[in-house]
Specification:
227 residues; alpha/beta; Rossmann fold; 6-stranded mixed sheet; 7 helices; globular
């Protein structure tokens, strides 16, 4: 079943009198339950594509269908509600509150969405990434890999159907990287769709499918074993 369909999507930024195409005619479909990677050199458009997929940014033109919903027709409030229900975001820099515990950081999306049983749901999410015993620790008391696991737990706490990760292992050592990719693989096995932006070929090789971008266009798109 197609979860996402992008058709001839562009994202244009104006720099003075010059138009710069961060995305230039991108057509991509993503099935429910896939685990895929988006790769490319710096400036290829991979983070822009992730932002469009996650409704953090609107395309300049083209069509974006998400579970049968025409995303382009939604207003800002509707987009915000869609983001809170459908997506979990994981970023390279963790984006944790330094003075709050791991548990409090994971509870944050529930505070904004008005969810109930915040403590219970946040603990369940932390236990899912193996950090239940570290729930009361602040980010400064955790390793980089543990901080990223807190960020993943925060992304999971609203039970999203799609996890979008932008260079999630960029600040981690090799051992922590393996742990994080293992968690994403388990989430995929649990039925969550996972899309990872990365510039590392060995990370991309752990996914089912690789979308390679070049100058804002899809240069290749296929299963890992066929590339």
């Amino acid at each position: 079943m197609e979860m996402i369909e992008l058709e001839n999507v562009t994202k244009v930024y104006r720099m003075g009198e010059v138009e710069v195409y961060a995305l230039n005619g991108v057509s991509v479909s993503i099935k429910q339950g896939e685990m895929l990677s988006i790769i490319g050199t710096s400036g290829s458009g991979k983070s822009t594509l992730l932002n469009v997929l996650g409704c953090l940014d609107r395309p300049s033109s083209g069509r974006y269908m998400l579970d049968g919903i025409d995303v382009n027709r939604l207003n800002d409030n509707e987009l915000a509600e869609l983001r809170s229900k459908k997506f979990g975001f994981v970023f390279q820099d963790f984006n944790l509150l330094s003075r709050a515990s791991a548990l409090a950081n994971v509870e944050l999306p529930l505070v904004y969405s008005g969810g109930r049983n915040k403590h219970v749901k946040a603990m369940e999410a932390l236990e899912r990434v193996g950090l239940g015993p570290r729930a009361k620790h602040k980010p400064t008391e955790l390793s980089g890999g543990e901080q990223q696991r807190v960020a993943i737990a925060r992304a999971l706490v609203n039970s999203p159907s799609l996890i979008l990760a932008d260079e999630p292992t960029g600040n981690l050592d090799s051992a922590s990287t393996k742990e994080i990719i293992s968690i994403f693989s388990q989430l995929h096995k649990d039925g969550i769709t996972v899309a990872i932006v990365t510039h590392e070929p060995d990370i991309a090789a752990k996914t089912q499918r690789i979308i390679r971008l070049h100058d804002g266009k899809v240069a290749s798109d296929g299963k890992v074993d066929s590339l």
